Amino acid sequence: MYESYLGLKGRRVSSKDTDKYFGRLSDILVNKDTSEIIGIISKNESIIYKHRLFFMRDIVKTDELCIQVKGYGEKFIKVVPLYEDFKSCENDIFKKRALYQNGRTAGFVRDISFNFEAGVMSGFEVGSSLIQDLINGRLVCPSGNTVNYLSNCIVIDAAVQKSLFGEV
Questions:
Q1: Measuring CA to CA, how many Å separate 84 from each of 30, 59, 81?
Q2: Mean pLDDT, the chain cut into blocks of 10 residues (168 residues total)
Q3: What does pTM read for this prediction?
Q4: Which of 21, 42, 91, 115 is 20 to 30 A off residue 69, Cα-Cα?
């Protein structure tokens, strides 16, 4: 089942066994090379531990109301530290400028699609403006090795551009 980042963000995260509330989903971490989901970050209003990281192996079930996890996750006082090959959907992908390899702007990442059963980020939607999105629709790009994540933008591979528009 595919789920959108905008639909997942803010969803309740709780324990499957005890129904303990851990907060609301605030971010999803993915591997930048393989697009595998590394885990989710829940955020609550606790005085001490605001963030909890639950790895993909800890996610038991996702439905329209909550994400059920096993265990208590890794607790962090401030921000969860990221490894170099991890990307944060909130900070590194969502709302970032998307460029083609020739430097032309495709738009901005408006949403991200996930398949939790397969454990992968399946793709993302790129749009330029609300009016253009309504008229032309959004560009749906697959994730994985077709995308290069830079610090301030995302570069879409020429093969994807060619498959979407014909000649580059």
A1: 11, 23, 10
A2: 90 91 93 90 81 92 92 78 81 89 87 91 86 80 74 81 61
A3: 0.86
A4: 91
Q: What kind of fold does domain 2-88 have according to CATH?
A: SH3 type barrels. (2.30.30)
| pLDDT given for residue 80 in this prediction | 67
**CATH tag for 90-165 (out of 1.20.1250.20, 2.30.30.240, 1.20.120.430, 2.40.50.100):** 2.30.30.240
